[in-house]
Amino acid sequence: MTNIHDIAKMAGVSATTVSRVLNHHPHVNEETVKAVQRAIDETGYTKNIHAVHLKKGRTNLIGIVVPFMDQIYFSQLVDGIARAVSKTDCHLLIIQTQYIEEKELEALELLKTKQIDCLIFCSRSVQVDVIQSYSQSGKMVVLEDIQVEGISCTYMNHYDSFYAGLAFLYANGHKRISICLNRENSTSSLQRKKAFADFLNAHQLPFLDEDVVTDCLYLEDGINLANQLIQSAARPTAFLVTNDQVAAGLYTTLVRAGWNVPKDLAIIGFDNQSISKALDMTTVQIPFNKIGEQLIKQALESEATRHEIKLELIKRGTV
Amino acid sequence: MTNIHDIAKMAGVSATTVSRVLNHHPHVNEETVKAVQRAIDETGYTKNIHAVHLKKGRTNLIGIVVPFMDQIYFSQLVDGIARAVSKTDCHLLIIQTQYIEEKELEALELLKTKQIDCLIFCSRSVQVDVIQSYSQSGKMVVLEDIQVEGISCTYMNHYDSFYAGLAFLYANGHKRISICLNRENSTSSLQRKKAFADFLNAHQLPFLDEDVVTDCLYLEDGINLANQLIQSAARPTAFLVTNDQVAAGLYTTLVRAGWNVPKDLAIIGFDNQSISKALDMTTVQIPFNKIGEQLIKQALESEATRHEIKLELIKRGTV
DNA sequence: TTGAAAGCGCTACCAC
DNA sequence: GTGGTAGCGCTTTCAA
Question: Which of A55, A226, A269, B124 has the greatest count of CB atoms below 10 A from its CB?
Fold first, then answer.
């Protein structure tokens, strides 16, 4: 491989001057620039980025931690982030964890070893204090409402949006509403459960254990849910569902079994994925591009900040 | 920042020895290891990866080029690749291009500057010869059937799977079949069009321009297609569709308009996404995990190889 | 406007 | 089992 010294020799100048040309410094003689350029063209030289990184201590790489990408929620999120990144001079490193803690630690080590300039957590398995223990290792941004010194966060207001969904169902006459969640104790599930409890309280409705279904993530979970529902005697009149995938599984299965939605069961999904549009399903919209922009903005800022993202109920035909 | 020399000094050994401990070399005295370890623990030292990269000339980074990730096809693909990568000691750099050529060139430059050890093209806008001109810059793998010296490829047999879909429709009595594609001249569309032409020829069926619909990618495109279909007089009895998203848009819109699928129109989708399962839709399965494994295997091999992926027709209720 | 030289922090070779 | 030393290729400071 040719290096900067080879170019310097060919152009009859010093490596310093070559470096100046490479980095478009002013005050270099035009003729000199041309000579260097000629040598570069001739050899097809490109500078060794590792040497630059070593010298400067940065990589312009932003790491993002996601559990999977075969789920629309995360892929749309990553897409939004990638769009935002492509407007900067940084690149995106993906650490897909399947929620394995070891993988998340690996990501944190990437930050610590400066292999990435910043790490964005889209979702996590490790405890907050583990993340906190790395807060001095580099810039971190988290997509949830944690209040840790030195760590930026952008978060969706799941409490408000869930409450709004419940209130909308109540306004449409529903007195027994069920909800389903994915990971029972994730930050967003905790918010959603609190919204549910507060809602029931406010309307003096009873809390029934069976009205909170957990581990619903995939479309298949919605199918299972529908089959259970079909066989149960006492059942809710409305369902507020984890996401549109689960809602679609629920909806299509019920309809195929002859149910009428929303008459027999009202459904609200989450994410406003295209499937919800196709099924004319009421859902909650998540502004992924805005979230991506926000996360990248925070990734590049020097101080830590907090930012709330509002979600919007999209009213369609399943309520 | 503490560096290897600081640790060496603290432990009373040389930097070489510290390096040996760091890299788990054998033949280091146990006491020495302990002393070094103590110094490392005390300072919280981690090695500067840039120096390692500079020294070794590698980054263990694999770049992948995708146009978007808000589409299930690509997100499942990236997910499959990410799963495969996570079994290696490499990491994944995503270059999301929106099919902008400039972005693809940026990715190629990343390879040339050794910022990544290998580049995987999942889909491209630039011409093959542009890619070819970078074939000496580093390892490249492409997800399509190109035959370029020094570039590995894994490709799906779109011709065979499309032909099989058409044959299946024909066997079910359909004589006028339409197809829809996305980008008219993409490698896969060209294969699919050829399969269509060959199929028509083999069965002495006429080729009608209006039976090839292009630019169908999103669910919304399927909705539009359905609306056109509803208003047209002479129409096909079966549709072989770009992907399950478009097929879902088509299906749900027709059903809502009172059509019976497959009686009024048979539909075959593509990708076997969960939505096709929910709608009980006949489709073609793409083995994303296998593709991911294969691409990463080729990324890490030294020679260039070719590999074909077979696709499988999943028979359900829309034919 | 240009150049010499000193690192950035690590690994690998060779010597002991 | 251990250490000295010579780079990897670049940028930056200082001096000319």
Answer: A269
Closest partner residue to B245 (CB to CB) among A109, A256, A274 is A274
* CATH code assigned at B262: 3.40.50.2300
Shortest Cα–Cα distance, B93 to chain A (Å): 4
Nearest Cα of chain B lies from the Cα of A45 at a distance, in angstroms, of: 9
Helix A244-256 and helix A219-231: axis angle, to 10°?
Answer: 40
Q: Give the CATH number of the domain where residue B19 resides.
A: 1.10.260.40
**Per the domain annotation, does B318 fall within a domain?**
no
The verdict on a CB contact (< 8 Å) between A92 and B96 is yes
Q: What is the pLDDT of residue B278?
A: 85
Residue type at B300 in one-letter notation: L
Residues A127 and A108 in one domain: yes
Domain housing B8? 4-47
The tally of domains found in chain B comes to 3
- Chain A 23-62 contacts with nucleic strand C (CB below 7 A): 26-29, 31-32, 51, 54-55
Are B18 and B75 a contacting pair, CB within 8 Å?
Answer: no
Query: Is pLDDT at B137 greater than 90 in this prediction?
Result: no
Sequence-separated (6 or more) residues with CB below 8 Å from residue A206: A200
Whether B70 and B139 share a structural domain: yes
Between the alpha carbon of residue B55 and those of residues A56, B49, B158, the distances in Å are: 16, 10, 44
Establish if B52 belongs to a structural domain: no
Inside any domain, residue A42: yes
Which pLDDT score, from 0 to 100, does residue A45 have? 87
Those residues with Cβ within 8 angstroms of residue B16's Cβ, 6 or more apart along the chain or in another chain: none
CB pairs under 8 A between A and B: 158
pTM across the whole model: 0.88
